[in-house]
């Protein structure tokens, strides 16, 4: 069967959701991201990232500059109620010629982790990749010792593909990388379940879900 490339790499545009807005990462987001990088649970989340948590505004601004100077394309995840950036995520391994792309560099701060905000942030990336840009493959990767990330990948509907042994050296430690993906043929069913789960009627007034997302194992 003949297949073609994706339309393009992701551009610096805003992706609007019901609960979050994904904005191209800029220095104006640095103060919010610094605030989201403090508090309970933060060290464990940053343990698995390539960088350490920023401790000053200069460090947060430097991260923004470095990300925007590289090949990846990062966005801030902005809570539409507060208007604050509560996390960030990036487009990585961008291969339009193969119609394959990854969500990576994910940091969802304590206020948005394991909530409808993080789920919608993932959904907006997947929908844009498959439907707007025509990608065939959407990837998720993590340290094979990062059990919360592995569980999240399955919850979000990614399929486990295997482990690349001694794939990276991160913060002086050897990293085995667990690979996950979802593909375009799976997306229509996954999208329907995301939209059912993200509907406002599926949440109590305090944001607690009434039913679980059922797209993964």
In a few lines, what is going on in this structure?
With 217 residues, the protein is an alpha+beta fold. It has helices at 30-36, 42-47, 57-69, 116-132, 147-155, 187-198, and strands at 15-16, 20-24, 73-79, 85-95, 100-108, 137-143, 159-170, 173-183. 29% of the residues lie in helices and 29% in strands.
Describe the protein in words:
With 217 residues, the chain is of the alpha+beta class. It has one domain (15-202): Gcn5-related N-acetyltransferase (GNAT) (Aminopeptidase). It is built from six helices and eight strands. The chain has helices spanning 30-36, 42-47, 57-69, 116-132, 147-155, 187-198; strands at residues 15-16, 20-24, 73-79, 85-95, 100-108, 137-143, 159-170, 173-183. The chain has an eight-stranded mixed sheet with strand order 1-2-3-4-5-6-8-7, sandwiched between helices. Helix 4 (116-132) links the parallel strand 5 (100-108) and strand 6 (137-143). It is globular, with a radius of gyration of 17 Å. The two termini are 30 Å apart.
